[in-house]
Amino acid sequence: MAPQRNAVLPTALKTPAVQKLTNKRVILASASPRRKEILQTLGLAPEIVPSTFAEDLPISSFEDIHEYPVSTATQKAVEVYQRLLDDPPDLVIGADTVVFTHALPSTSIEMETGVRQELLEKPSSKEDNMRMLMDLNGSVCEVVTGVSLVYPILSAPGYEIKSIDERTLVFFGDNPDHLLKAYVDSEEGLDRAGGFAVQGRGNLLICKIDGDFYNVMGFPGASFFKLLEILVEEDEDFLAI
């Protein structure tokens, strides 16, 4: 007999979606300690099975750049789900968070001006981190997280995929150069997309956040649970296979 699994913590709110997850095998296809921490804070402790997907999709192939993190999240979740078919999970959660420069008021402006937001990867060096922060200083960036859920169904290919993207605007203060340099020298931003950590000392550079704070950390918990609630309401077979 397979061991009993339960990702639901005693602290979780007793909603229909959470009750549906009780005694289910839930996988987080990510090694991110921040995503794990956010889910635990909200009452879930999934198994951690990091995806081996290369995360090398060409962003130029996406007409809407917001589809980029969603596609990456989907690839991560599907890779892990297929790898675990010998002991199939009930739900795999994939996520990918990216940072874009200078969020535009609307896509129509992008179409009219030809301006395209730039994807900010993790800085390659302290010099690169400083360049990123100087570009963001006194400006705004957009943090987008794609979340994809993969779960079993009876029809081919044997699993269903449901995805969302969450967008949050991060406004940087007009910070003096010495503060930017001090932050870069701390090296906190070297392993973070965009070169800053909102939940750490990078918070000193930011004057306002418009949207989900957890999304900037790497996982939009509220939207994730809303998606679960929708699936529970609309699909009576969700997590019933």
Q: So what's the overall shape?
A: elongated
Q: What average pLDDT do the residues reach?
A: 91
Largest sheet: 7 strands, mixed
Number of contiguous helices: 8
Q: Poorly predicted ranges (pLDDT <50, ≥5 residues)?
A: 107-111
What would you say this structure looks like, in words?
The chain has 241 residues and is α/β, with parallel strands linked by helices. It has helices at residues 16-21, 33-41, 67-83, 107-113, 126-136, 177-186, 213-217, 221-234; strands at residues 26-28, 47-48, 91-101, 119-120, 140-152, 159-172, 206-210. Strands 1, 2, 3, 4, 5, 6 and 7 form a seven-stranded mixed sheet that branches. Helix 2 (33-41) links the parallel strand 1 (26-28) and strand 2 (47-48). Helix 5 crosses helix 6 (177-186). It starts with 15 loop residues before the first helix and ends in a 7-residue tail after the last helix.
Summarize the structure.
This protein has eight helices and seven strands, in the order αβαβαβαβαββαβαα. The chain is an alpha/beta fold and 241 residues long.
Please describe the topology of this protein:
Elements: H1 16-21, E1 26-28, H2 33-41, E2 47-48, H3 67-83, E3 91-101, H4 107-113, E4 119-120, H5 126-136, E5 140-152, E6 159-172, H6 177-186, E7 206-210, H7 213-217, H8 221-234
Parallel strand pairs: 1-2, 1-3
Antiparallel strand pairs: 3-4, 3-5, 5-6, 6-7
Helix pairs in contact: 5-6
